């Protein structure tokens, strides 16, 4: 349940931030949400990967359908990728990685700075 809530919050917050800020605002949104949600770093990465991939892949797919694959096809040619839908899948993959790494960093920062358990120096 918390994973679905995190994914929904990331799609809403990340989508809203990217209307006004650069592409990397998705990682900032994932970072901030990971500070708030009670996830281990691995769970935070996986949830944010899925949410960000859905956001970027869904939007890229939407644009691809609207222009009959012309834009994604041209971008694919530019980067040496065959097919418009391959470009859409790569967009989803890169968005997932950016979001996942942002959430992973947020979860580790929460453990390091906001954890009630302090690690004793060895």
Outline:
The C terminus is likely disordered. The protein is built from five helices and no strands.
Can you tell me the number of structural domains?
1
The largest sheet, given as strand count, sense and whether it forms a barrel, is: none
Mean pLDDT across the residues is: 91
What is the radius of gyration computed over CA atoms, rounded to a whole number of angstroms? 17 Å
Shape: elongated
Percent of residues in beta strands: under 5%
**What is the count of helical runs?**
5
End-to-end Cα distance, whole Å, is 38 Å
Unreliable residue stretches: 118-122
Task: Summarize the helix and strand pattern as letters.
Answer: HHHHH
Assembly category: single chain
Strand runs, count: 0
Task: Classify the helix fraction into a percent range.
Answer: over 70%
Structural class: mainly alpha
Structure description:
This protein has 122 residues and is an all-alpha fold. The chain has one domain. It has five helices and no strands. Helix 1 packs antiparallel against helix 2, helix 2 packs across helix 5 and helix 4 crosses helix 5.
Question: How is this fold's topology laid out?
Answer:
Layout: H1 2-20, H2 25-36, H3 41-66, H4 70-79, H5 84-113
List keywords for this structure.
122 residues, mainly alpha, disordered C terminus
